[in-house]
Amino acid sequence: MLLQRLLLTCLGLLLATVIQAGTITLTPDTGPIELMPRAELYVDESEALTVEAIRDVPLLQPVEQETLSLGFTKARVWLRFQLYNPEPTPAYRVLYMNYFLLDDVVLYREEGNGFSAQYSGRRYLSEHNQSPIPTRFFHFEITLPAHSSQTFYLALKSEDAISTAATLMPRADFQRVMVTDTIGITLFSGLILANLCFALFMLIKLRELEMLYYFGFLLSHHVFTITMLEGVPASLFNMESLFWNRTGIIFMVNFAVIMSVLFFRSFLKFQEKYPQLYRRSQALLVIAIISTLQCLLVPHVIGSAVSTVLCMIVGTGIMYSCVQCAIAGDRSAMLFLLSWSSGITGATIFCLKLWNVLPSNGFTDNAWQVGATLEAILFSITIADRVTAERRMRLQTQMELVKQERTLRLTQEQLLRTETAAKEELEQQVEERTQDITRILGELEIQNRKLMELSINDGLTKVRNRRFFNDAYPELWREAQSKGKWISVIMLDIDHFKSINDTYGHLTGDQCLVAVAEALRNRVTRPKDIICRYGGEEFVMVLFDTPAESAMLLAESIRTSLSETVLETDSGPLSVTASLGVAARIPNAAVSATDLLSTSDHALYESKSSGRNRVTFADHPQSASASTRR
Hints:
The protein is of the alpha+beta class and about 625 residues long. It has 19 helices and 20 strands. The strands form five sheets. Strands 1, 3, 4, 6, 8, 9 and 11 form a seven-stranded mixed beta sheet that branches. A five-stranded mixed beta sheet has the order 15-16-14-19-20, with helices on both faces. A four-stranded antiparallel beta sheet has the order 2-13-7-10. Mean pLDDT is about 85; it is low at about 1-20 and about 625-630.
């Protein structure tokens, strides 16, 4: 044993004498290391050099910053670095890059006279997604044998701008980075989905074209563009198409710009109020359409650069038009300008970073996401403000009616005092007018009741809506908790609903939703039970004083009934099936109403994952944060 230790010590000293000054030494105490300042850089403009040729390059340019920012370049970028493990045990590290816009990421390890290679990047997403560490980051696992030193070559190539850092860290630190990133992406997605649901709700409630444009803008920009920019679809859904992950991002950005032009001129009513600005907006729309088409027809590196310039022109044009409307005193334009400025500022900062005009740092790397989040929140406030203003105008109109009625009564009283000779005629007039007033007030009361019903009912299916559910479900939970009663939640999702809409049309989809709602009303009949349309093709039922067995029987009965339902469409009969998730609980302090809802949602997900058209019961509470959303 003593002899072995002496030999290992001598071997370590021997290796230490030949290690270069820039070598990274790995010890158990070594934490995360930024690779760029420790690596040597070579930019191959010819794109023809192999790793063997790069090995023979005598001098490479040092990287001076933690982030390698080269802007748009067709060159292949090579980074050379050396790792040394002085320990008697192997060293395990993860090399990762938190930047998705890289086409080729290849790590070469020098072994004897040859090289071994590991592949990642958008071109090699199949290899990336097979990694034992599931993450959206491009990364490589490195194992360095005991008492050894090895040289590595990292090759980068992209038709988008290159602006990335590279970090070498232990596995435990990498897992913490993944957890933090997952939390951040989840919070961002939650905020965007909340605004998307708000936009959908306003679209259904107001049924205005501008809300359709706004929903399209949120969907294309905030949902698709930014999640694709972060590599979420590629890692979460195994979306491995290079075209979709590269050109698709630019296409969605351009489509979002088209939606934004349509939305802003419709929201501010350009055609009615600002004819000259409306004609200018036509030019912005043409530019946005040209930008969208060219990104599909020209090489990506050109299309990306052209789209960046054209989209910035359109965004600035929208801002300029809003400024003119705001100067004219348009309150909606002022709020729109504030919302749009936050989004366009974030996107501009991010683009300037890609063009290597601004440095890459935590602020510029996340400027687009931060601006988009703030923009979505401010747009929601802007829309809500306008709806409130319109409601205020309706109230003012009602007050004017009341004032007119009061004036009419005073006039009648004056006529009664001054014209006693025409008393009978005046009394008849007063009676007739009083009847009219009573009728108007009665109609107003009926309309107010109808408005109240509309606010808590789903206009299509006639069951309660999400707003009613959010108010009624916590109250029913508290009552069950105080009385020690069971409460069950059944969540239902119509199978293949998007396919029904795409194949048979949205009218058939609406017919399907109405049929499902009618089936639920026929089986959930107790006064305290709740049936709500939860969103899209989802329904939720809350059953008071109902144990799990009864809830499962009811859910199975609903599933069976729906599977026997056949809708007649223009394309022939259509069968409808649904997946259901059931959760039941006697409320206590350890479980919240949200946890039970999340448990039911988790069970619904299990039903859909297990083949659909089935009922799944979840007997373990799921916290809201642990629930898997579709």
